[in-house]
Amino acid sequence: MSISMEATTGVAASAALAPAVLPQIDDPQKIAPKDARALGTLFFQQLQVLEEGTHEYQYARNTLIEMNLSLVQFAAKRYRNRGDGQMEDIIQVGTIGLIKAIDRFELSREVEFTSFAIPYIVGEIKRFFRDSTWSVHVPRRLQELRVTLAKAKEELTSTLGRDPGVAELAAHLDISEDEVIDGLIASNGYTAGSIDLPLGGTEQGASDSGTSYADITGDCDPGMELVENLHALAPLLETLEDRDREIVRMRFGQEMTQAQIGEHLGISQMHVSRLLSRLLATLRQGMLTQS
After folding, report:
1. I need a surface site. Which of 29, 51, 73, 244 has the fewest CB within 10 A?
2. Count of CB atoms within 10 A of residue 44's CB?
3. Distance (Å, whole) CA 279 – CA 291
4. What are residue 28's phi and psi, to 5 degrees?
5. 107 shares its domain with 43
6. Chain centroid offset of residue 235 CA
């Protein structure tokens, strides 16, 4: 669609006074960059005088978004090595940055919209990688420190001819060694591999090598908790009276029934039940107090 530049200039001159009839553009993404700049000024002027929420306002805003989607494509090119699947997400978050730039742009700034919008677009993309691509969530401070450490390591490696140590990184960045260590540890959370991968890190499947990381990964031994409980229980049993300790031994050591215990002690099964309830409550409370 060709648009007379004289007509565009005339409409733009009166736009600051009252809403004007904007040219209808069937496919804003096909507008040439030269025409897009002139039209952009016209549409931004109209955004300032049109009532937000009206059909005309939405048309002006949406047209500006579509006319400038090429800026998102341009900014996203540097991340094309991330893969096609992630590129779609990059375009989406970059478009959010473009929309924010359009909503905040003012012609009175006397700056090209392109120069104003690119930092917003790139900023949204960087925030996406910083907040959404970590395998393990870490504080933003450590996410940013990881990037700083990576740049410092590259600089020092070039200067020293070898990988720098913690002390050298700390001195170069003027931070403590503990902060460097925290940043290096946090870097381990950026990516994570599947424990189903075979030893050696190939992606062919664990069955090809026979042994996966999951096969050699330790697990909690339920017997350890039992040992800890028995260790905590032993001194509590020593505090019981002889008959109470004998009841516990018969019930849980010899696995005698309450009726058998009652017969052995010459008391009723109901009495044994009450005694056991009291003893177990006492022992349980003692273990909770210890923990």
Report:
1. 51
2. 19
3. 19
4. -60, -25
5. yes
6. 47
Contact 46, 21 (CB under 8 A): no
Over residues 124-148, the mean pLDDT reads 73
pTM check: above 0.85: no
DSSP state of 108: G
pLDDT score, position 27 = 85
Q: Which domain holds residue 28?
A: 5-132
Confidence at 3, pLDDT banded by 50, 70, 90:
very low
Whether 14 is in a domain gets the answer yes
- What is the distance between the alpha carbons of residues 89 and 277, in angstroms, rounded to a whole number? 61
> Between helices 5-15 and 33-49, what is the axis angle to 10°?
20
Pair 178, 233 in one domain: no
| CB-count exposure of residue 78 (10 Å: 0-12, 13-18, 19+) | exposed
Task: Name the 3-class secondary structure at 146.
Answer: helix
Write the pLDDT tens digit of every residue in 73-116: 888 888 776 655 578 888 899 999 999 999 999 888 778 888 89
CATH classification of the domain holding 141? 1.10.10.10
